[in-house]
Amino acid sequence: MPTVAVLDMAGKEVGKMDLSDAIFGIEPNQSAMHDAVVCHLANLRQGTQSAKTRAEVSGGGKKPWRQKGTGHARQGSIRAPQWRHGGIVFAPKPRDYSMAMNKKEKRLALKSALSSKVLDSEMVVVDKIAVDGYHTKDIVAMLKALGSNKKALIVLPQADDKVISSAANIRGVKTAAVNTLSVYDILNADKFIVAKDAVARIEEVYA
After folding, report:
1. Going from the N-terminus, what domains does the chain have, and what CATH number goes with each?
2. Which of 22, 148, 166, 181 is most open to solvent, judged by the fewest CB atoms within 10 Å of its CB?
3. What is the C-alpha to C-alpha distance for residues 189 and 132, in angstroms, rounded to an integer?
4. pLDDT bracket for residue 160 (50, 70, 90)
5. What is the DSSP string of 159-190?
6. Angstrom distance (rounded) from CA 43 to CA 163
7. Which residues, 6 or more positions from 121, have their beta carbon under 8 angstroms from its beta carbon?
8. Do 104 and 43 contact (CB within 8 A), yes or no?
């Protein structure tokens, strides 16, 4: 059973916490995590790109010059792809890039991502993450105390407007509630900072 130190927002150790083997102590499945990341990135694509083929651009109905005898290469339309304002060859069209994963694979990927953070010592448990007002400096001070100076994911048991707003304009920092966790966000973070109550909630939801 993995055991991690519980810190306060000032970075001081205030206790220890045992983590669930079933959630934080499994052998990470690289294939499942890869599939989850590919699925996440694919679902971010809008697929709204569009360009016109030679059949869709306006004009070009008349042959620009006769077939032979001009010294020019033969041309059938001024809207062929090699002409200025011509159509696009293999023009991109709107399409759906979305992908799906079955529930068991998605759950395995999430457990694998959580376990990998524990194995890599990139998971930090904080006894309570809260701020009195909308102050970015409070979150900056917490991150500095916890040794996070790059990308960090702050996980809360439920949405907290003050914490979310205070962290919103810090480069590389993202906040998430337990029910909005994604494998991509977990793996993309250099520090996985979780409130103690959120750990219990994760173990309850994803058991």
Report:
1. 3-42+101-205 (3.40.1370.10), 46-96 (no CATH)
2. 22
3. 26
4. confident
5. --HHHHHHHTTSTTEEEEEGGG--HHHHHH-S
6. 27
7. none
8. no
